[in-house]
Amino acid sequence: MTYAIEAQGLEKTFGGEVRALDGVSFSVEEGTVFGLLGPNGAGKTTAVRILTTILEPDGGRGTVLGHDVAREAAVVRRLIGLAGQNAAVDEYLTGRENLWMVGRLNRLSHEHVSLVSDQLLEQFGLTDAADRPLKTYSGGMRRRLDVAAALVASPPVLFLDEPTTGLDPHSRNDVWEMIEGLVVEGTSVLLTTQYLEEADRLAKQIAVVDHGRVIAEGTPEQLKSDLGTTVLDVGMIDQVTAERAAQLIAPAGTKAPTVVDSLVELPVADGPKAAMEVLRLLDHNSLTPTLFRLREPSLDDVFLSITGRPTEEGSRDGDDPSSNGSGSNGRSKRSRHARRGQPQQEHRQGLPGANDGGAR
Amino acid sequence: MTLATTTTDANRFTSLPAGQSSGSALYWGVSDILTITKRNLIRYVRTPEALFFSTVQPIMFVLLFRYVFSGAIKLGGTLPTGKHLPYVDFLMAGIFAQSVSFGGIGTAVGLAEDLQSGLVERFRALPMARSAVLAGRTLADLLRNVFVIAVMTAMGALVGFDFPTGALPFLAATALVLLFAYALLWGFAVIGLSASNSETAQVMAFPILFPLLFASPAFVPIADMPGWLRVFAVHQPLGVLIDATRALMIGGPTAGYVVQTLAWTAGMLLVLVPIAVWRYRRSV
User: Which of A92, A106, A115 sits opposite B42 (nearest CB)?
Assistant: First the structure.
């Protein structure tokens, strides 16, 4: 079967030492959203830049609808659209002019560009702002126009690189709905994000990347069930009461609760059901919580669960490979690269800087 | 899946023909350049303040030299008519050279901005001609130079320049300036592509430009310069250009200067274009 996008062991090193990608592999089924989830500097953008023909990989291979991104770049460029935090628009041009420019550079006829532009501007709620320079746009409008520009040539494969980073919740929701609409119409999407919630809502498959490697992969459900899905926070009046409450409510959770000061954190499988049970247990014992909150696990929780360490860059010095056994998926990938004996050294990466590391 | 069926899939969600026009590679290459050119020109029109200040500076130089310094500058020459050479006639060639060379800073800054903003990244993922970004940029800046030269000509006429050699040699002079300036733009492109941001591009361009413009016959006769400086002033590209355009504008031996200018122009293009293209390719 031909995948919309396929990455096979992509490797990229910047400036001879910054290892941005260290053998990344994943496959995106046609007509689905694939989420590439990871913290800043994990290598997501580098992967996107390689798969959109902007960069050449040092090793490995990428294909879009079966076409090699390095050897058949010209073909691939006709099949893809790129938008997101790094794909820019021209702020001195109006919305319509930006679409015109990208459309013409996509080798579309004048008539076609103007038809599609009108359609897209309407679809993205930008008709009123169409003839204003982008300088006057809000962040959300700009991002929508950016995505519209990526769609001018109706590409069957779309790359969205952190399309909601820096957006307010309302604009974020707009972008999500737009992506859902595109998939209904048959577009295949590679979405990179730092937000588990976003990948969870949009993606059919997720790969979690960290330090240029895929450390976990699966459906959102699989990933979440791996880590206990939901967290129930129960605040008590003091630590002693919290300890007592933790013992009482432990049976409702999937893992043992943790107590931090007066707060009990309980990983649960079914949020509402567990919440009712916990409340019943507390009420039975005449305990009243001061705080009661169900929350989705964050990317940090995923990382903690997979790697045994938080996403925080600073903590990597304390990265003890032996404590990371839980990330089985990532471990097996690592083992393919036998030469990498000292993971810490590879951790000195970030996204490749503004222009280049390699050019200097 | 083949390319053809993919295109059909794409149609499904626009309910339009895919619209990828046929056309030769040459047609689309030219189209890409014109698209980028138009985009850059729109930017110039939308930032009139930038255009204004890049024009206002040479205008101030015209006024400064015409009215403040002209009395202190001794000119020995005479016009073909036998009349003593007025300073304003001498000045025009220098002002032309100054306008187009300082204007080139905009080329460097603009390219650095495009790299910085990520626009070039987007271009790289498009099926456009690779060369169009630089070709479109320099073409737009050539057109900007046409505008600036027209403004400076009007300014010169206002302060007393009366085209002593007539219209045709004057037009030849402007054509020579524009041609030379086009080659020079590629040098600024190299600077813009080498700078990490637009501020750096500006700072990098100035120290290169300053000696070329002022260690030249642009505003004062070189007769009073020290010998070593005189050698530099008459042989460096901007100096040669100024001598050639001045000869065309006010008379005197011309052919040698023009040939030298054309040689510099060709040489600069031969060296700077490949360097700029190389920098562009490496600027990911």
Answer: A92
Comparing B142 with B5, which gets the higher pLDDT? Answer: B142
CATH of domain A229-296: 3.30.70
Output the pLDDT for position A300: 64
The domain limits of chain A are 5-79+156-222, 229-296
The CATH topology of domain A5-79+156-222 is: Rossmann fold (3.40.50)
Please name the residue of chain B whose CA is at the shortest distance from the CA of residue A83.
Answer: B122
Chain A residue numbers with beta carbons less than 8 Å from the beta carbon of B47 are 92
Per-residue pLDDT, A226:
66
Taking CA–CA distances from A31, the nearest residue in chain B reads: B9
Measured CA to CA, the distance from residue A58 to residue A17 in angstroms comes to: 13
- Tell me if B9 and A156 make a contact (CB, 8 A cut-off): yes
